[in-house]
Write a structure and sequence with these properties.
The protein is mainly alpha-helical. The protein has ten helices and two strands; from the N terminus they run ααααααββαααα. It has helices at 2-6, 13-30, 39-58, 67-83, 89-97, 101-114, 144-162, 166-176, 195-202, 207-232; strands spanning 121-125, 131-135. The chain has a two-stranded antiparallel ribbon with strand order 1-2. A hairpin with a 5-residue loop joins strand 1 (121-125) and strand 2 (131-135). Helix 4 crosses helix 6 (101-114). The radius of gyration is 27 Å and the shape is elongated. The relative contact order is 0.06.
């Protein structure tokens, strides 16, 4: 199903499953422990070869005449995802796949157009096994009730945060990377500093002191939140 969704091959689930099994049967027939490759690595490579051969020959859109050409297209697209913001991207890609820039441009244009062959309606099976269809462009991201609940939870959390002492607030803020004003994480890849680093940042005597303040602040917040939610029941 992951392959079906990745390559927009709705309606091909059974066929792709069969080619995976075909690849596995080939592995069981041909694999030798003396080849120097772990079985799982060998199995994955053969199965993916079968899947890509099926996709190359069966999907609508871009037609690629051979497996070697299809691998070239896939390599070009992989490099495109890396170099697409580079002004010399086309030159680098054409050199890497061993073709002229005009040919590389045609390969990329065809592959990029091919990415857009997706059914307007997505078909799936529900919990009862009955098939259903839904629009792929349907937008249910804005739900008033969910938004209100999220807003209430955020306000409750930061009211508990604001009840802490200044040092407790600072230690928790530094450890979590949350902005106390806008309530957002500074960066999704934010790496929490160690207690030693936290202690240095706000002038505490030791890492142990920072950890103690952090755990005490969390304990207080949990108590405030527990009281708040139990009162609403």
């Amino acid at each position: 199903m992951g392959i079906v969704q990745q390559y927009a091959m709705q309606g091909h689930f059974e066929d792709i499953k069969e080619v995976c099994i075909l690849g596995l049967l080939q592995v069981l027939d041909k694999y030798s422990i003396d080849c120097g490759t772990p079985f799982l690595t060998y199995k994955t490579r053969i199965m993916w070869d079968e899947v890509h051969r099926y996709i190359r020959t069966m999907r609508t859109g871009l037609t690629v005449p051979s497996d070697s050409e299809y691998k070239k297209v896939r390599k070009a697209m992989r490099l495109y995802s890396i170099y697409k913001k580079d002004p010399n991207a086309l030159k680098k890609i054409s050199k890497a796949i061993g073709v002229k820039e005009d040919t590389a441009s045609q390969i990329l244009q065809g592959a990029l157009r091919n990415q857009q062959f997706v059914d307007f309606y997505r078909q799936y099976a529900d919990d009862d096994g009955e098939e259903s269809r839904e629009e792929i462009c349907e937008d249910d991201t804005y739900e008033p009730l969910r938004t209100l609940v999220q807003k209430e939870l955020t306000e409750t959390l930061f009211s508990a945060y604001n009840a802490l002492s200044y040092k407790e607030q600072e230690v928790i803020r530094i450890r979590t990377g949350v902005c106390p004003d806008c309530h957002r994480v500074q960066n999704r890849k934010y790496k929490s500093p160690t207690f030693y680093e936290t202690a240095i940042t706000i002038g505490l005597s030791s890492a142990e002191a920072a950890e103690k303040i952090y755990r005490e602040g969390n304990r207080k917040m949990r108590g405030i939140l527990a009281s708040s939610f139990s009162g609403r029941k």
